[in-house]
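Sync notes, pocket subgroup
Present: LS, DG
LS reminded everyone that the earlier model was apo-only. Rerun requested with zinc ion included. Inputs:
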Amino acid sequence: MPISDRNPSAQALNVHGRLFLIDCGEGTQQQMRRMHLSFVKVEALFLSHLHGDHLFGLFGLLSTMAMYGRTATLHIYAPVGFGPVLKFYLSYFGEGMNFEIEHHPLKMKEPEVVHTNRSLSVSAFPLRHKIDCFGFRFDEQLSERSMQKRAPRSYAYCSDTMPFPELAQWVSGVNVLYHESTYPQELASKAAEHFHSTTLEAAQCARDAGAGKLLLGHYSSRVRDFEVFEHEARTLFPESYAAQDGDVLEI
Ligand SMILES: [Zn+2]
Ligand SMILES: [Zn+2]
């Protein structure tokens, strides 16, 4: 839940100036303003699942985009159940929206490419949570010439989920892996009960995947001490970092 210095889940991936929003918790608009991220540059939105802490910020954001006179189609990748939610929102608040919102329903059982442009390929895959939930992997596309100079970069987002064996394969080799770690290890039974992961489970996934770096997040509001997350994860995977609101990371 939101507390004074922590907002629910939302991330922006900036690929050559184009923005890809991943989840859209309450407060996303204000955070985007603080971070000087333009609403106009959002090309697509990826919603992992229909829990409020991952999408309550969406409706205000859509209305603001309309106020800014957006005309470009907005692609939203979200579970099937998002269809009626969007329809409800548009039926009450859709007047004056001069852009199309295209909902691409997610229902895959294994990784599938869902969005591509010249510089990016995005695939979605199922996570294991209380309700339908999906993770996303962003792979940079490079021309043959650029490939000779450097390797393509990649990023994966996995929230919310309990651990399961296939996940590490699906995010194998990413430069940066974001994996939720809602609980420290001493609350492992709570993690299992609520279909979430602990610090060590996140770190294990990063290690099995051979990720470059692990970003932790989605901390339970009952835990006030961030240090414990980073500290515990590093015992298994030294390149672990506990993300905080407003952090910027270059891949
Ligand atoms: Zn959830
Ligand atoms: Zn959540």
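DG: Residues 9, 51, 53-54, 160, 218 surround zinc ion (ligand 2) (CB under 6 Å).
LS: The chain has a mean pLDDT of 96.
Action: DG to write up.
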